[in-house]
Design a protein that fits this description.
Elements lengths: L1 E4 L15 E5 L2 E5 L13 E8 L5 E8 L14
Parallel strand pairs: 1-4, 2-4
Antiparallel strand pairs: 2-3, 4-5
Length: 80
C-alpha cells in the first residue's frame, strides 16, 4: 500500500507555496516539513513525499519514504 504526500498545513495542495525542503546528505536526502490529509498514510508501506530540492535548484521532486525510516512519522486523524 502506498500514499502520495503533497498537501501541507500552510500551503494546501498548491505546490508553488510548498514549504517542505529536501537537502542532499551523504547517502541520500534529508527532508524537513509537514504534510496533511494524506489518504492511506497510517497504513502505507511506502509514501511519495514531494519537496523542493536544494540539489535541483529548488525544483519539486518526489522522494520515496518507507515505513519505519528514521524521523518519518504518520498519524491517523480521528474524527475526519
Amino acid at each position: 500500500m502506498g500514499c502520495f504526500g503533497l498537501t501541507e498545513p500552510d500551503a494546501g495542495s498548491d505546490p508553488a507555496s510548498m514549504k517542505t525542503r529536501a537537502k542532499a546528505v551523504d547517502g541520500g536526502y534529508r527532508l524537513n516539513g509537514a504534510k496533511m490529509w494524506i489518504t492511506n498514510s497510517p497504513i502505507a508501506d511506502l509514501c511519495v513525499v514531494w519537496a523542493k530540492s536544494d540539489a535541483h535548484g529548488g525544483k519539486i521532486k518526489g522522494f520515496v519514504l518507507e515505513r519505519g525510516m528514521e524521523g518519518f512519522q504518520r498519524r491517523k486523524l480521528k474524527g475526519k
